[in-house]
Amino acid sequence: MTTKREDVLNWDEYFMGLAHLSARRSKDPNTAVGAAIVDENHRVVSVGYNGFPKGCSDDEFPWAREGGTLDTKYAYVVHAELNAILNSKWPVTGCTIYVSLFPCNECAKAIIQSGIRRIVYESDKYNGVDTNIASKRMLRAAGVELCRLENTIHLEVTKTKNPETKAE
For the chain, percent helix, then strand, then coil, each to nearest 5? Predict the structure, then answer.
């Protein structure tokens, strides 16, 4: 008798994997972040990644991290969490958002206002920074559950030529 596999991902790990896959769409050369919003029935409601707003060319806006405000990405980039909320065709009230990096204070506001009730995250590399402290303060005050994954998820995605396609 064949036994079932035991090394399967749990739901939180699975959806964090989807957030990481979404991050692969980001063109940010330093910090690629992805987010996935999921309802209580484990259905994907939306995904997002950090990047420039629609219509703003990735070649015309800066990706720099240092310099004047108008010369760095920070004034222009839409974070993964906000993109996922804005991309959703359905209400996200009561949903869980999976995000590879703990949400900043601006994303925390959008998460709270949209009605998301749970955040699952991996990295909290800005822990202790004022904006991170503000984010956690607001999220806790609003009753949003914060859940840091015990395990980190690593994906390996490779593109290879499809042998079934013919050269034209």
Answer: 30, 15, 55
The pLDDT profile of the chain, 168 residues, written as one tens digit per residue, is 788 888 889 999 999 999 999 999 999 999 999 999 999 999 999 999 999 999 999 999 999 999 999 999 999 999 999 999 999 999 999 999 999 999 999 999 999 999 999 999 999 999 999 999 999 999 999 999 999 999 899 988 888 988 888 766
35 and 47 in contact (C-beta within 8 Å)?
yes
Q: Which of 6, 60, 81, 164 is catalytic?
A: 81
Residue 99 to residues 59, 63, 119, 147, 149, Cα–Cα distance (Å): 26, 21, 7, 11, 10
Closest to 118 measured CA to CA, from 49, 35, 9, 22: 35
The 3-state DSSP class for residue 69 equals: helix
Instruction: For residue 156, indicate whether it is catalytic.
Output: no
Q: Which tokens belong to 148?
A: 């840091």
Assign 80 to helix, strand or coil: helix
Show Cβ contacts of residue 160 under 8 Å, excluding neighbours closer than 6 positions: none
Q: How far apart are CA 160 and CA 110, in angstroms?
A: 38
